[in-house]
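Lecture notes, unit on protein representations.

Consider one protein chain, 473 amino acids long.
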Amino acid sequence: MSVVQQLSPGWLLDHLSFINKINYQFHQHDEPCCSKNEPTSSVHSDSLQVDSVSSFGACATFVSSDFTTKPKNNDRENYETFTQKYVFRPELFDVTKPHITPAVNRECQQSNEKEDLMNGVKKEISASIIGKKRKRCVVFNQGELDAMEYHTKIRKLILDGSLQLIHEGLKSGFLYPLSEKQDKCSKPVTLPLDTCNLSELCEMAKHLPSENEMELQTLQLMEDDTSVTEQDLFSRVVENNSSFTKTITLMGQKYLLPPKSSFLLSDISCMQPLLNCRKTFDVIVIDPPWQNKSVKRSNRYSYLSPLQIKQIPIPKLAAPNCLIVTWVTNRQKHLRFVKEDLYPSWSVEIVAEWHWVKITNSGEFVFPLDSPHKKPYEGLILGRVQEKTALPLRNADIKVLPIPDHKLVVSVPCILHSHKPPLAEVLKDYIKPDGECLELFARNLQPGWTSWGNEVLKFQHMDYFVALESGSR
């Protein structure tokens, strides 16, 4: 379970635990007498491995880790079986200190903020913020004024609810006071290089020659696969229906595919394979690449305009009464767009507004709560697809709870950009059992979910994982 604590304000989540409870493990055979000194791979010798040259001039390799193949002869019965397990690198969730620049520290008096948070003393400084706003209103644009007004409305909700969950996290030992870890040497974390450039591959794939106009079926990674090319990845949904992890090597880079997961690697102009599945979803989580000034300046990430986001075919993907969850930045322009334009265009009725609150391992906000620059929280807008026709008897036997408003999802964030916390466990009570789940603009895979995006395998890269010591059986 990723839920550490559940209280009336919301949930305290353990994102790292959620990832590591996925069955990222492989099995391999080793021959006692003659194979001990030979190099071994991460899967056993009976694994399926299919290489085929693609239009890019490289090969796509699928490796199955299913431990179901029987020995081909009696000699194999003397082999030992080894299990190699992988876990997500724990240092990627090692957030011991708030993300503070000296300028932010001076403006927001962070030392007082930390003392207030840890001691549970809630100083009402909103009056001073309002006073500052009135004094300097001539230099604030309308967007900044709207953001201040919004923050004033939700500040008490964020502070009070977070403190309750943080207090329970400290009591349980999931969070720990910084003083207990001061002797720990914090080493700089080396992040993997994005050598595969998935988004660029998706752009290149649009120029590949199309075989024909026929709808290609979903590609299931089974042991009887005979040919899988990179072009297949961009033309159909790929599924790992087994109970074991599989790996895929794309342009020389290896990615882990968790059990019971499926994905489509493409950009927004090539979503047709997802529609071709003829499947509708009971919950759709959307994390759009919102446009902002820093992204435009850095040129590191692509973004979509509001018009492009509206073109996502949600009405075709959503099942009746589908729950739509959209991540929204703190920019009020984006918040208003979702509420007043995007959801109405999809016939989605807003039912709740939640917030993700980001904290350190010791329970501090990653940014000062009243920082005028960056806030320690982001928004989630939840809505239901409205019925076009009245069906009073439809699903009358399925009970789902009404969605509460103003809930908090509190967690230690991953240091990787846009690695959002898992919502599967906090949403399960609000969708029907065994409902179909879809994540759009995903950068990782989840068991039981379909994921789509032009970087959908990004955080499944092998370099984000570490191998534990293998044990023999």
